[in-house]
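Sample A.
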Amino acid sequence: MENDWTEIYEGGSPETEKEIFRQLAQTMLAVQEANRQKAGAVQASRALHAKVIAAVSNAVLSIDENLPESLRVGHFQPGASLAAAVRFSNASGVPQPDGTPDMRGVAVRLDTGAGTFHDLLMTNFPVSHARNARQFVEFASIASGDRTQMMARLEQAFGQSEAKRLVEAIAKGMRPSRSIALERFWSRGAILWGSAPVRFNLIPDADAVDAPFDIAARGEGLREELAARLAERDVRYRLAIQHYKSELVTPIEDGAVEWTEIASPSIEIATLRIPKQDIQGVDGRHQMSAIDALAFNPWNAPALFRPLGNLNRARRDVYGATARHWQHPSAAKEN
């Protein structure tokens, strides 16, 4: 049942878990520095999702008039329209050509009024490869090092079967993309929606036209393809919600378990519209730079939409630490 859920804190308490997360944040800062060196960059960028594909500040999320009563929480009300900023990215911590097999991400910042906002972060694969934050950070640390020793180090850290699962999970998500407008994105972790846990996802418009595969083969192919698409028409997605059912089929703490459509069918509740525009022109590139400078975090949310689960709880500290490092490099060096 949706009210039969709980969170389990690593180490047995929120305080102990938070200390563990502080240590993990330091490891991710080391990963961030390793990525900077690989990229040959003067300044660190995001530890992950470093390369922006495209970003706009003039999107709109329109809530359905027939929004189910149980989902009418906070700013999600029937017929409401929320201004939104949207950033699409490649998942790698090292910027690389768009045609390179990779996961893709989207961050949506909703303007909830009175200077407050709500960040929704998603990736185009339904689950995380990692079950929890410790596994995520240890995997990232190993992957940022010598790739010839990667499998041996993973097996040493996690055991043979779990190392194999991690590598296979990553491989499934790492693929080329024909168009960012054709990708589906999932939150991969739960959040509170009023009093019940949910996961959310973005579904591409069923009427979106296809794109030639080779468009993404160029260095900025995904941006160019989206620019061509937006020069002619709006780009739309449907926002959908999946309800928590039970720890068996929709676990809160294990980020590597998919909430399948069989276990919890997606309920569409709103339309995200990116209006027709020129994202390659001067104004479009200025808009992209401004949004790319924002530090998105699932904890940028009203209390009614608090992130849930180990991976999400870690993101508050880990994202904050790595964001300070790329937004304020001088301050980061002093601390």
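Sample B.
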Amino acid sequence: MVQRRKWFLIVTIGLLVTVGLAVGGSGLLQRGKSGAEAQASSRTDLPEGVAVTVEPVTARSVQRTVTVVGSLYGHEEVAVTPKVEGRIIRIRCDVGDIVRPGDTLLEIDPTDYQLAVNEARRALDLELARLGLRELPGKDFDVTMIPSVVRAAAQERNAATKLERVRQLGNRGAISQEERDQADTDYAVARANHQQARLEAETNL
């Protein structure tokens, strides 16, 4: 009985060893075959030769285009306002236009300002008429040549002449003291009128 068991164990171990060797040998054969196939496939996958052309190095400009999305703003913003107010009749430049110093940006209706100029011109003509002039004189103009000043100067000289005559008659006792006082008053008034006429003429000019 014991011998049968030993014999059975020996046969079993032998079968196992035989099966193991068979399996290992087939694995080695498969590995060898796969390695040979891999080498063959790697040899067939190699690309064919490529023709290369050699040229000297030259500098050339390369154009680069970048597509972006956003808004453009200036570095500085300056508020441009007209010196006078009025109704705009024409706009010569728009947002984004390039302008240079002295360029006209817009036009304002000059009607109101032209009326103001005409009114000022008429006021000037009226003042010149009061002075007895037709046009504005120069810087070296003598105010004593203005008719109102000439008239006041003549009245002053006339009053001075009358005063001198009254004084001579008074020394002789031919006129009263009241008449002498009246002559003095008339002369003082005439001289004051002359000075006032000169001051008014200078102020108006």
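B remarks: Residues 2-44 form the longest helix (43 residues). The mean pLDDT is 79.
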